[in-house]
Design a protein that fits this description.
Blueprint (H helix, E strand, L loop, with lengths): L1 E14 L4 H9 L2 E15 L4 E6 L5 H8 L7 E6 L9 H4 L2 E5 L11 H12 L3 H12 L4 H4 L9 H13 L5 E5 L7 H18 L2 E5 L3 H7 L2 E6 L2 E6 L1 H8 L2 E8 L13 E6 L2 E7 L3 H11 L2 E8 L2 H8 L7
Parallel strand pairs: 3-7, 3-8, 5-6, 6-7
Antiparallel strand pairs: 1-2, 1-4, 8-9, 10-12, 10-13, 11-12
């Protein structure tokens, strides 16, 4: 469905040194440099997949999503969506995409969401029966009567984002592109939006591309993860592979009968105390059986569990944010 080969996007940006003299000189002669936002990225995404896109600020995630949606032209390389070039902006292809950006809105501030939905209905040629069915289906997940007929400026952020998502999905797109959709939302609103996306994707078998700094969004929805760093694609596989192969270690959580100092566990791995009677121990995968046996023999253990290193720690390790997870 989506195929990218050596996809690259560069921007020519104005460059000026700090200081008053440089400010004056920049009026007369402007210097520029090339900024590579996406650097020779290659991948394929099959229909029906939910893909999480991770990376630090400036990693190139939003630029990549905009190229997939046809909003930006690649500098070089090849990009195909449904066998067509997105930047050609063919109407048939654009009508199959729904795009939500958490820091931008498509709802008019002074109108009601219902007014915007009627405009979208006209744009996409949705007949009245299908329109009513989709609103009814959506009302099972969110209280539309509470939000549809109030001016957007009076809605909470969570209510507005639910309406943004409804507007983007009203035409049943085959490709859903979400860029930080839960930005600024509280926990209940985040869960509600994830539920809306999951329900739509399951019903329509739509492909979902989700870029987010909020890892619970990706963990809850994605069956594949792509990690970008400085414009390059540095990882492309499942979350399980990310935690197993990139993390390389497991977390043994130990709860003791009496408080044991963290230092007592350091002979087995990297120990960190969570509370008075619980310690987390980071050990290599291969050492888990031996370490577990040794701990059970040496300490009075009331609880012991083994799990993967948290995703956020593995991503930080992959991006070089820390030498240890």
């Amino acid at each position: 469905m989506i195929t990218a080969h050596q996809l690259t996007k560069s921007f020519r940006v104005h460059h000026r040194a700090p200081g008053l003299v440089s400010s004056v000189m920049s009026v007369l002669t402007r210097s520029h440099r090339w900024l590579v936002a996406v650097d020779a990225v290659s991948f394929e995404i099959e229909p029906g997949r939910i893909v999480g896109l991770l990376g630090a600020n400036g990693a190139g995630k939003t630029t990549l999503l905009k190229m997939i949606c046809g909003l930006l032209h690649p500098t070089s390389g090849r990009l195909q969506v449904w066998g067509t070039t997105p930047s050609h902006r063919a109407t048939r292809s654009l009508c199959r995409i729904g795009f939500v950006m958490g820091h931008k809105q498509q709802l008019d501030w002074d109108l009601t969401p219902a007014d915007t939905l009627r405009v979208h209905r006209a744009i996409y040629g949705i007949d009245s029966t299908a329109y009513a069915e989709r609103l009814e289906r959506w009302s099972e997940l969110v209280d539309l009567d509470e939000v549809l007929h109030r001016p957007v400026r009076t809605l909470s952020l969570g209510q507005r984002m639910a309406c943004e998502l409804l507007a983007a999905l009203l035409h049943d797109p085959a490709l859903i592109v979400l860029d930080e959709p839960t930005l600024g939302l509280d926990v209940p609103a985040q869960r509600a939006l994830r539920r809306l996306v999951a329900a739509h994707a399951e019903r329509t078998n739509a492909t979902v591309l989700l870029a987010s700094h909020h890892l619970p969004d990706v963990v809850a929805l994605a069956d594949r993860v792509m990690v970008m760093d400085q414009g390059s694609l540095v990882f492309d596989d499942t979350l399980q592979v990310l935690q197993r192969d990139v993390g390389g270690r497991s977390v043994i959580t130990v709860r003791t009968e009496a408080r044991a100092p963290s230092q007592a566990f350091e002979r087995y791995g990297q120990a960190r105390r969570c509370d008075d009677d619980r310690v987390e121990l980071l050990v290599d995968h291969a050492d888990v059986p031996a370490v577990t046996r040794a701990i059970l023999e040496q300490f009075e253990i009331t609880e012991l569990s083994v799990g993967p290193v948290p995703v956020e720690d593995v991503v930080a390790q992959l991006l070089g944010a820390g030498s240890n997870p």
